[in-house]
């Protein structure tokens, strides 16, 4: 197999969004074959939004019985387990993904397995503590942040199917020089919630994948600056253009959850066989749920409408004597996974010291909102649908309210005066 060297692009402050780069009018899949292979690629952006917001979820719900019956048929799963690999093959056979994309997703699963192993052994392999550097966000990098970023990047590069990668831990997107075909764009946060690692609390990886855009072809790039601009343009696509999104939770078990646009599927890592095994077919976030997950230490810095919303959740008279419960891990993947399963709302609002909150649009808010919508839930900034935001910078932050549809709508009734 050929080696896949990566070119770290020259630094260019303008490309970080201080002065947003112009975006092409539309993003067009490079090849007609991809149009056929990927479910929504031939649709308009509006149609795609509709697919993300409900149509696909309905389709998923329609198909759900067969998946559930398949799961129940499994009984002793070891007899006929649906593994992540067999599921990927099935998606390819159905024409939902193409073989190149299956390779990319498979490499992400491999990265997650390796990171799960590293996280599990961190305390006994000198991988706890700080790396001694800060990332582009000005956050102290943990040793495992750095190692996980390398694992994720190397797994994606080695596929020969990934053209550009953008990570929380890298200042600029990285162009993968040698690809056989595919050129998928992958954005990821290799280890979210890493400040929890040393205490052995849940952490996770988050990722999203896009088609490359035809208007910013890497082939046209003659110099480093053009290449960098092309990379940024390729990466800065709105969430409604995502072809896949997912996360992997490293906790009491390792759970890979993802969607390729036809519902949300969860796979639990069986450490005995080293395989992700289907454990959560066609996940649906409950329509409502009385759990809120916010860092209330920031309360005094929130807008009055968010304060009023939180106060209302805590008012026993409003909820038949039992107010909402508060649960907050401080690791988005863990808090979001619980919200997917039990219902409720996760929120990271803007505050006086951080008007756009803390979470990053490209590799946190958009992938999680894609999953939420695919599972029948919602992802909102409090003012607009997260998936409709056109990113202006790779590491852009936006407020996030995500989870059960009725809970996010209730929040919006305060923030949008609905
Ligand atoms: P770290 O990766 O630095 O631990 O940040 C995690 C995170 O981005 C997200 O996973 C949490 O939901 C959020 O930050 C928690 O932030 P607060 O500590 O400000 O509540």
UniProtKB/TrEMBL annotation:
GO terms for biological process: fructose 1,6-bisphosphate metabolic process; fructose 6-phosphate metabolic process; fructose metabolic process; gluconeogenesis; sucrose biosynthetic process. GO terms for cellular component: cytosol. Belongs to the FBPase class 1 family. Its EC number is 3.1.3.11. One of its GO terms (molecular function) is metal ion binding. It comes from the Eukaryota. The lineage of its organism: Eukaryota, Viridiplantae, Chlorophyta, core chlorophytes, Ulvophyceae. This is fructose-bisphosphatase. Its cofactor is Mg(2+). Homotetramer. It catalyses: beta-D-fructose 1,6-bisphosphate + H2O = beta-D-fructose 6-phosphate + phosphate.
